[in-house]
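Sequence, structure tokens reproduced for absentees:
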Amino acid sequence: MRQRIVTGVLAGAFYLALLWIGSFPFALLATAIAVISYLELAEMNKLRAYSPEVMIGALAVAVIVIGAMFSLSSFHDIWLKLFALLALLFVSAAVVTRNRISFAHSAYLFLSVFYISIPFYLLVRIRLDSLILVLFVQIIIWSTDSGAYFVGRKFGKNKLAPYISPNKTREGSIGAVLVAVLIAIIYRLIVGGAFLGTWPALIGITLLISIFGQLGDLTESAIKRFYGVKDSGSILPGHGGLLDRFDSLIFVLPMLYILGLIG
């Protein structure tokens, strides 16, 4: 537990410091986190991190995330071209590698590139637009995680998804949402003004972040259970991998974008 706390404090402080600085320092950090998360996802499926096909995907992830620093107009066409290029590269991998890489593995890597890169691309974009907004999203996600853990330990009796994550409870999930709403109210009172519009709008957005954050956590738990691994990696002592720490954010940001709440 001590190692977990020390790692959490140091890693959290470093992340928040670069989040506060913003610009290229934070974009580089987001790119590094995205690439490592992608590599962790690849290794779950027994794909070697330094194999050519995995490295192609890692390069694509890096290009997409760091591309958030440039104007959308100049980067727009690159998305479609990159999408098409990756599709051709991955589906032809079976030929180049003499069937060492199957179509299933190629499809897995192709999906992994966009599953990981798009959320971190959005993370860099919203940091460029508003520090207050990106801090809010991050704090609500952390509040949800903490609320689920402590409320679940104290009051948890009914399993939420026993075949995916046996330790999670319905009571913890409900407590997580309530804690998130409380923190959102406090956050708005601190920053002042009409942050995120009306109070009902604030509560509604908070509910979306908390619920989709938990869904992202469960999704990654399902992936890990399918591939028979406990943690996505070991880069953070006591915490596992980076994918374990950012699984909620990976789900939340695309959903907020789809709903038109961030852009």
